[in-house]
Design goal:
The protein is α/β, with parallel strands linked by helices. It has one domain: Ribonuclease H-like superfamily/Ribonuclease H (Nucleotidyltransferase, domain 5, 2-Layer Sandwich). The protein contains 5 helices and 5 strands. It has a 5-stranded mixed beta sheet, sandwiched between helices. Helix 1 runs parallel beside helix 2 and helix 3 packs across helix 4. The protein is globular, with a radius of gyration of 18 Å. About 25% of the residues are buried.
């Protein structure tokens, strides 16, 4: 079972509260640059590992390419892919990948329920750890730090305990 979502990372730091000694004003470097990149991420809820890649845009074609990557990374397993209802999670490109792969099934989260998708919480953790108030000297270093956090962290999730394992009868 894999949950999938995307997020956009901007070089412009997002600000949040920080601790500082009394009388010392924290300094957050702000850049006028508006550079951004998208991350496609998928969480394997069984082993709590994240698979994340950068993408120039969020489209049905890019989503289909990311799903193909997941199929390569899980070469023999049945995959239940849980998605939100973003427009790029529908369309001919993704339908073609589904039709070509009998071991792949898609289930959509209910409308307006981002809290159900564990991937949303991972994006939030990554922002808290890496991009809020970031001191990155360049956008490339921020991307590298964000990518490393996503792909090297084991994320806590109680998704399987709450909702149970998938019914693999849906693949037959």
């Amino acid at each position: 079972m894999v949950t999938l979502d995307e997020m956009s990372l901007y070089y412009q730091a997002t600000l949040t509260r920080v601790w500082s000694p009394i009388g010392v004003t924290p300094v957050i470097r702000i850049t006028p640059q508006r550079e951004m990149i998208h991350f496609y991420g998928a969480l394997d809820v069984r082993n709590r590992r994240e698979i994340a890649v950068t993408a120039p845009e969020q489209t049905s074609a890019v989503t289909a390419d990311f799903v193909r990557i997941l199929l390569l990374l899980f070469p023999t397993q049945h995959i239940l892919l849980l998605l939100d209802r973003a427009p790029w999670h529908h369309g001919d490109d993704l339908s073609q990948v589904l039709a070509e792969n009998q071991r792949l099934a898609v289930m959509y989260f209910p409308v307006a329920c981002p809290e159900l998708n564990p991937q949303e919480h991972i994006c939030s953790q990554a922002r808290d750890a890496i991009s809020h108030n970031h001191p990155a000297p360049s956008f490339d270093s921020l991307i590298d730090d964000f990518d490393a956090f996503l792909n090297e962290t084991c994320f806590e999730t109680n998704f399987m305990e709450k909702y149970g394992p998938p019914n693999y009868a849906m693949f037959n």
